[in-house]
Amino acid sequence: KLTSLALQPVITPELVQGHVHLKCTYSRPSSKLPLQYVVVWSRLSTPGKKERIQRDTTLQSFSYIKMNGVNLKLGDTVFCTVTAFTRDTPEQQSLPEESKGFYAGIKFLPESLQIAEDGKEHVLTVLSTVPIACPEHDDSCKITLQLSTEDLGKNSQLLGPPNIALSACQVDLLRAPCSERSCAAAALTVTAVTDFARDGNRVSRIRAEPVGRRDLLWRAYTPKDVKVTVQDLPTGNCYSFTDPHIITFDGWRYDNYKIGTFLLCRSVARAFEVHVRQWDCGGHRSATACNCGVAAR
After folding, report:
1. 184: which of 53, 128, 236, 282 fits an S-S bond (Cβ 3.0–4.6 Å)?
2. What range does the record give for the signal peptide (predicted)?
3. Contact 187, 72 (CB under 8 A)
4. Does domain 106-231 have CATH number 3.30.420.40?
């Protein structure tokens, strides 16, 4: 048998004559022996189980497979396994070496989110690991993804407002030169909806669907959803009651017997404030004011 040759196969995406292909590249050993290579392509059919889809015998240090949307589709995780053997004595073989799995399709980073009802924006990156082909007679090399959210859990339809808000309803993935990670990318922000209700932690998902594509590869493909867990934060409370006794958000207590219009509360982070109007409601013996009007923005 040939000793271990350190072929180190790696899969990269490539456009060949306008069609998406995957290329398996491996190191050609410096041995003087005339070598040939057997490249076996496989995909993950179920977790932990691989299905063989193509076998090549070649003199080259690379092998291609076409993503045709039938035996190799978007959403597949693909592997290539390479074995070298000498042309004169085919029974002399190296040990087979397998590449890392290559996920072909749309990816979200991060793949899941844990956010809180604190108004913060969280960046979600959408990327395609394969190049985007231009339709014929069309220069717009892009995939448009329609985004939607869905609340999960019991009685999600009865719980009021949605859990999360997106900064965009659709994003365009424009073709770019393929890097190690992606061939097209876009970003959006996700924010938890502050609902002022103690309804526990809630789970939603973000769904993306390619729209307006006629080719088989993209038309039959729905990317994997992103799971978003929203942590419930207790809402703050402040009070102004009776003649007015005031309790602030952090529990301070005092009285305000004055007559007039006062600023009760103003947020330093967003457009939110509450004004109160106090009129004289006491008798001759005591000066007392009562809330008689409120304005909130």
Report:
1. 128
2. none
3. no
4. no
